[in-house]
C-alpha cells in the first residue's frame, strides 16, 4: 500500500495519526470470539424460532442453513477488506474509501439507525415482558422505570473502557451458549429414551413424518425467510471492533472462520432437537420453543429459566447496539459526517459523547412504555425495517469488495484472508438478497414495513444533500475521484505484468 492512496476516511482518526482521537485496542481473542457468537445468536433464535417452525415446518433447517451460508461470505468479504488496511476501523470506513464519501455516510448512519431501532425494541421487551414474567407483581408504573434503569446500566457498562463492554458481552454470550447446549443435551436424552411428551414419543422421525420435510409447502418455506433473516442481524458486529481489537490479523479471521460451525451447532443443532422432541405442528408461534421443550421435559422452573436466558439475550443485543452505534457515530464524526463533538474520546479512549447520544435515543423506549406501547408493536417494526436496513449494510460491504477487487487486485493477491469464491460468490449473495426482497412482499405486514423503510433513506439523503455542499466534502469527493483514477491505473499496470499471476495466496485473477 502506498501512502498516497489512503482516503479521507482513513486519514482522519486512524491508528497512524497520534494527534487525532483514536480508540484503544483492548479487546482480546476471547472477547472477539464471544462477541462474534453473541452477534450470531440473537433473541430471534430464542423467541422467533417458534414462528419460523410453525410457518415452514422442518424445512426451517434449510432456511437457516441457506441464510447462514450466504452471510458467511458477507463476513469473509468484510474480513478481507478490514485486514487489507490497518487504518480501517469498521466497514463504514472501507465503504467510504472504496465507493466514495457518500457510501460512508449512508452506511454509517443506516447501521446506526438499525441498532438504535433494535435496541429500543430490546429495552421495551426487557421491561414489559421478560422482567414482568420474572417479577409479575410489579405495578404498571414500574415498567418505564425499569426501562430507564436498563438504559443507565448499559451506558454505565460501556463508559469505563472498551474492555468493560468486552467482558459484559463475553458473559452474556456464555449464558446463551450454556442455554443452547443445555437444550441440546436434554433434548438428546429425551430422544434417545423415546420420551413421551403427550404428543408422541420423541424421535428424529418427526423431521419428516408430519407432512414431510416441507410440511407447509413451498409457500411456508419462502415465508420463513422473512422471519429468519432477523435472527441473523448483528452477525457483522465483529466488524465494528476492528479498531479496538488486539492483533486483528489473527483474531478477526479466527472469529469469522468459526461462524459456520456456530450456525450448525447453535441454529441447526437446536432446531433439530426442538422438532425431534415434539412434532413441529405442536409449537406455538407466539411462545419460545425452548420454554415448551423444557416444560415438556417436566422441569418446573422452565419458564423462569428460559425467560432469564432470553432476558440476557435481549440485554446482550441492546449492549451490542449501544457499543456499535457509538463507534459508528464516532467514525462518522471523524469524517465530518456527524457533529465534531461526537469525535471526542474520554481519557480511557471511549467515545463518551457518542454513547450519550445513543442513551438519549434509547429514552424513546421509556416514552413508548409510558404511553402503553407493548412489545408486539415494537417487534413488528424491528423484524421488517431493521432486517431491510441490515441487508442494505451487507450489500454495501459486498459492493465495496467488488470495487476493491477491481482497483486493488495486488492487495487481494497478497491477502492472507482472501474471500473464497471471489466475485462470483458476491453475485450469488446479491441475487439471494433480491430473493429476500421478493420474499418480504409475500406477507402484508412485512410488505408494509418494506414500503415504509425508504422513508429513512429519504431522510438521510436530504441530510447528505445539505452536507455535500460543504467545502471539505467537495474536496473529499475530488480527492476520491483522483484516488480512483490513480488506483485503476496501478491495477491496470499490475494486471498487465507477467509476474502478477504468481502473487500471494489470494491470487485468483
Describe the structure.
The protein is mainly α and 509 residues long. The chain has one domain (3-492): Amino acid/polyamine transporter I (Up-down Bundle). Helices cover 70% and strands 0% of the residues. The relative contact order is 0.18.
Content of β-strand: under 5%
CA-based shape? globular
Q: Tell me which CATH architecture applies here.
A: Up-down Bundle
Low-confidence runs: 1-19, 500-507
The level-1 CATH class: Mainly Alpha
Measured as a percent range, the helix fraction is over 70%
CATH topology: Amino acid/polyamine transporter I
Which secondary-structure class do the elements indicate?
Answer: mainly alpha
User: Strand-and-helix sequence, N→C?
Assistant: HHHHHHHHHHHHHHHHHHHH
How many strands appear in the DSSP assignment? 0
Provide tags for this entry.
509 residues; Amino acid/polyamine transporter I; globular; mainly alpha; 0% strand; 20 helices; disordered C terminus
Summarize, please.
By secondary structure, this protein is mostly helical. It is built from 20 helices and no strands. The chain has one domain (3-492): Up-down Bundle (Amino acid/polyamine transporter I), CATH 1.20.1740.
Amino acid at each position: 500500500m502506498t501512502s498516497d492512496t489512503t482516503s479521507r476516511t482513513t486519514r482522519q482518526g486512524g491508528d497512524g495519526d497520534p494527534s487525532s482521537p483514536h480508540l484503544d485496542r483492548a479487546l482480546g481473542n476471547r472477547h472477539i470470539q464471544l462477541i462474534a457468537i453473541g452477534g450470531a445468536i440473537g433473541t430471534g433464535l430464542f423467541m422467533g424460532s417458534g414462528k419460523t417452525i410453525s410457518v415452514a415446518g422442518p424445512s426451517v433447517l434449510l432456511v437457516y442453513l441457506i441464510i447462514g451460508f450466504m452471510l458467511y461470505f458477507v463476513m469473509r468479504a468484510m474480513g478481507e477488506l478490514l485486514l487489507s488496511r490497518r487504518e480501517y476501523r469498521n466497514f463504514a470506513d472501507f465503504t467510504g474509501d472504496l465507493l466514495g464519501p457518500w457510501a460512508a455516510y449512508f452506511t454509517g448512519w443506516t447501521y446506526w439507525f438499525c441498532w438504535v431501532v433494535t435496541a429500543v425494541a430490546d429495552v421495551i421487551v426487557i421491561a414489559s415482558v421478560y422482567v414482568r414474567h420474572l417479577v409479575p407483581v410489579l405495578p404498571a408504573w414500574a415498567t418505564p422505570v425499569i426501562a430507564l434503569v436498563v438504559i443507565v446500566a448499559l451506558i454505565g457498562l460501556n463508559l469505563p473502557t472498551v474492555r468493560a463492554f468486552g467482558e459484559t458481552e463475553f458473559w452474556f454470550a456464555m449464558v446463551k451458549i450454556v442455554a443452547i447446549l443445555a437444550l441440546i443435551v436434554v433434548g438428546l436424552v429425551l430422544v434417545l429414551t423415546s420420551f413421551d411428551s403427550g404428543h408422541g414419543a420423541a424421535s428424529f422421525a418427526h423431521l419428516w413424518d408430519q407432512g414431510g420435510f416441507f410440511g407447509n409447502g413451498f409457500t411456508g418455506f419462502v415465508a420463513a425467510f422473512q422471519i429468519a433473516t432477523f435472527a441473523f442481524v448483528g452477525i457483522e458486529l465483529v466488524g465494528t471492533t476492528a479498531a479496538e481489537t488486539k492483533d486483528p490479523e489473527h483474531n478477526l479471521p479466527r472469529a469469522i472462520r468459526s461462524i459456520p460451525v456456530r450456525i450448525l451447532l447453535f441454529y441447526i443443532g437446536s432446531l433439530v432437537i426442538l422438532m425431534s422432541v415434539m412434532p413441529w405442528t405442536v409449537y406455538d408461534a407466539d411462545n419460545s420453543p425452548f420454554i415448551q421443550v423444557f416444560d415438556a421435559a417436566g422441569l418446573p422452573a422452565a419458564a423462569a429459566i428460559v425467560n432469564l436466558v432470553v432476558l440476557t439475550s435481549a440485554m446482550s443485543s441492546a449492549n451490542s447496539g449501544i457499543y456499535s452505534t457509538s463507534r459508528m457515530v464516532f467514525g462518522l464524526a471523524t469524517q465530518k459526517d456527524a457533529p465534531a463533538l461526537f469525535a471526542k474520546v474520554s481519557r480511557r479512549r471511549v467515545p463518551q459523547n457518542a454513547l450519550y447520544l445513543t442513551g438519549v435515543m434509547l429514552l424513546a423506549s421509556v416514552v413508548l412504555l409510558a404511553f402503553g406501547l407493548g412489545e408486539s408493536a415494537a417487534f413488528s417494526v424491528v423484524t421488517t425495517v431493521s432486517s431491510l436496513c441490515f441487508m442494505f449494510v451487507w450489500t454495501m460491504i459486498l459492493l465495496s469488495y467488488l470495487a476493491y477487487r477491481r482497483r486493488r487486485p495486488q492487495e487481494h493477491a497478497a491477502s492472507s484472508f482472501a474471500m473464497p469464491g471471489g466475485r462470483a460468490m458476491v453475485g450469488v449473495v446479491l441475487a439471494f438478497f433480491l430473493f429476500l426482497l421478493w420474499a418480504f412482499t409475500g406477507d402484508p405486514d412485512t410488505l408494509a414495513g418494506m414500503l415504509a423503510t425508504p422513508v429513512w433513506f429519504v431522510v438521510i439523503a436530504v441530510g447528505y444533500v445539505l452536507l455535500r455542499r460543504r467545502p471539505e466534502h467537495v474536496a473529499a469527493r475530488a480527492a476520491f475521484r483522483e484516488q480512483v483514477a490513480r488506483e485503476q491505473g496501478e491495477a491496470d499496470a499490475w494486471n498487465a505484468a507477467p509476474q502478477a499471476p504468481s502473487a500471494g495466496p489470494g491470487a485468483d485473477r
